[in-house]
Amino acid sequence: MVPKSWIGLGLAGHRVLLVSLALLPCLSAQEIITPTEGPVRLLPSDAAILESPENRKDLPCTVTPDKPVLGFDLKYHVNFEVMLSLRELVGSENQLTMVFRVTPEGHPDGTYFSHHFQVPAIDHDEGGPAYLNGTFNVGEGKYHVDWLMRDRSERMCSFHWDSEASLPPKDKQMTLEIATGAVQAIDPEIFKQEPPIQREQKQAPLNVKVMMNFAPQDANGSALQPLETRALLSMLRSIAREPRIAKFSVVAYNMQQQKVIYRQDDSPQIDFPALGQAVKSLRLGTVDLKHLVQKHSDTDFLTQLMTSEIKDPKDSLDALIFAGPKVMLDDGVSPETLKQLTDVKFPVFYMNYNANPQLNPWRDAIGTAVRVLKGAEFTISRPRDLFFAWTEIMGRIVKSKVGRAATAEATLH
What does pTM read for this prediction? Predict the structure, then answer.
């Protein structure tokens, strides 16, 4: 494991050293302790501390656990923050080791995690707190967490807490991506490939095209935030996991750069690693000079993209799905252009990711186009929105497919 670096910041005359152990993509993650055989073997001192109900404070620290939060990946994320004073770390280089155990209620065994990271030499005049943040995934259920941290001098800080993850009654029909009572580490690779899906074998399998705008909520933002990337990928993974879809086409683009960054046509599986390489290569926060001198270049790009993809002669689609944050343009796609697209035979949908719909309740350029095409728009602000939107979208796709097949058969007779 590679430890997260320490970052010094000036604040009110004090140098505050912030330590981030945030177990999120692109950051260092905790490691699950996996025994080669038999039960997990810990240092005797660690085992004794985890079993003791008392909290140790010879290495003074404060642990603040948060309530489990359901993520767009349909897994509960349990976050906790650890605070300790820099004065406790004064001296030559040190090493902090974190070990904790997460035990589901009614289970005899827990899942063990560990994390090691280096502490640089700290002067005696250093002041302020240091913070560490941890995260792990769980399914629905009740859990007990036994946690400790020690330094090279074997000073200990320990803490114990209970945590419960439960869907509200109105969301009980949701199917999570993690089993009840399961405990997992955060996966640091968010663009990892989906495992193979057993597709339904039918004479006329569903064929879907997804046009996704990989862009931050802030149109002028210089980077996609981890939460934004996870939300967009969760939309795509919901589609990729649908067993009734056999063929996928993906067009990933970025409105800020006004270009298509990735394309995949008529494939049995979406290539997430290849998509990830394309997204990571984006240079947001910069604008091509030709776009500055060309009036309404953003509208022209979107118009050309929509017309070419919707009317692509090689496509035999059962649905077209737009996805991404809102695209607010000074001038939308012209009504004349949209009229040329209204003869599409397949349903059109828009999964609009909008984390704060109250701040931007207006229909954007894509939403306006989808409305003219008699499609349906769904605002995705929370994980439950994604689950129920995709359920409805699939219902409409299947209904449309059946209806068009029945019409075709009636025409033949």
Answer: 0.83
